[in-house]
Amino acid sequence: SAVISQKPSRDICQRGTSLTIQCQVDSQVTMMFWYRQQPGQSLTLIATANQGSEATYESGFVIDKFPISRPNLTFSTLTVSNMSPEDSSIYLCSVVGGGGARYEQYFGPGTRLTVT
Amino acid sequence: QKEVEQDPGPLSVPEGAIVSLNCTYSNSAFQYFMWYRQYSRKGPELLMYTYSSGNKEDGRFTAQVDKSSKYISLFIRDSQPSDSATYLCAMSARTGRRALTFGSGTRLQVQP
Lengths: 116, 112
Fold this sequence. Notes:
B: mainly beta; 11 strands
């Protein structure tokens, strides 16, 4: 399976600031996604990170708040902008395939964000 | 109504019991079905992956998909305290949107 790392693993940020989360995969993958998991909740898709083009956002998520970059097939970033306490969540990147898998989806360890 | 329904539990069983976890779904386009295990403060770990209908077994874990009933199950045999975690079902379509739609997760506690 693909090995996925995320940086930072956790952070505590002040209201109004921004945080950029990095996702690195050890093999080239065609599909990458960013999810959010709010405390005690299941996972919600934020956007699909498209290599070489703008990300595709789900309803309720906008580019100004969650800008995403994907410069190549192994790396992506998610920025959480102008943060408020409601943005306190775990942010997870996910990939389809990689490491010999075709359809399975794997997750990174997550970034635990607390906004004060 | 949610696309994927999952009983949130918590489910408490004695060590050695057989555990049955279930999800129902409404979107007939779903073709890929996955079960994830998530320990507290960790990312989801893929346990089982099934394409379309049928059964799949891996060690103590068996995944079943019944597309006619839009119902999937995960069975854990000889449950261990280390199986205590939240179990998430997830599914996606074969074409188009490939991102996963998740159930709400079932919290499992295996008592020693």
